[in-house]
Design goal:
Blueprint: E1 6-10, H1 13-20, H2 28-38, E2 42-46, H3 53-59, H4 77-86, H5 88-94, E3 101-106, E4 109-114, E5 121-122, H6 126-138
Parallel strand pairs: 1-2
Antiparallel strand pairs: 3-4, 4-5
Length: about 140
C-alpha cells in the first residue's frame, strides 16, 4: 500500500474525524497511532458498519449456512459437499480432536461443518479456497 493512493472506508467515525482534526491529540499514544496511519497516502471515508459489506464479510463471524447472497461466484452448499468428499484435508479435519464437527444433509450428500466456536463454519476444501477468496475480493471492486 505504500506509495499508492487509496480510499480507506471504515465504520469508526471518531477515527475518521481524528485524522482530519487540527488540534493536538489527547495523549502521546493517540498521537503515535494517528501519525502511523497518516503516513499512508489515503483518503479516509466513514462508511456505516451495515453498509460496509466487505468488512462484514471478511471480519465478522457469520453462520456459513447463511451465505450472504452478495457473494457472486460463491460455491453452493452442494458444491461444498461434493468437494469435501474428495478433499484429504477435510477428511483429516473430520477426525480432529480440536474441532467439533457437525454434519448437515445437502441432497444425498453430507456437508461437514465446524461448530466449535458457536457458529457453523463450513470445512472449506482446498479446491474451493481460491474461488472463495476471489468472490470475497470482488466485493471491493464493484462494477470492474
Amino acid at each position: 500500500m505504500e506509495g499508492a493512493i487509496f480510499s480507506l472506508r471504515m465504520d469508526n467515525k471518531p477515527l475518521v474525524k481524528a485524522l482530519f482534526k487540527l488540534s493536538e491529540p489527547w495523549s502521546a499514544r493517540q498521537a503515535q497511532q494517528l501519525s502511523y496511519i497518516a503516513e499512508y497516502n489515503m483518503e479516509p471515508e466513514y462508511l456505516p458498519g451495515l453498509d460496509n459489506q466487505v468488512a462484514d464479510c471478511l471480519s465478522r463471524p457469520v453462520n456459513s449456512m447463511d451465505v450472504p447472497p452478495l457473494l457472486a461466484g460463491y460455491p453452493s452448499h452442494m458444491e461444498f459437499a461434493a468437494a469435501q468428499e474428495k478433499c484429504q484435508e477435510v477428511a483429516a479435519l473430520k477426525n480432529s480432536t480440536s474441532l467439533k464437527i457437525a454434519c448437515s444433509s445437502v441432497g444425498k450428500r453430507k456437508l461437514f461443518l465446524d461448530v466449535s466456536q458457536g457458529t457453523s463454519q463450513i470445512l472449506v476444501p482446498t479446491s474451493l479456497r481460491h474461488r472463495i477468496i476471489k468472490a470475497a475480493h470482488q466485493l471491493s471492486h464493484p462494477g470492474v
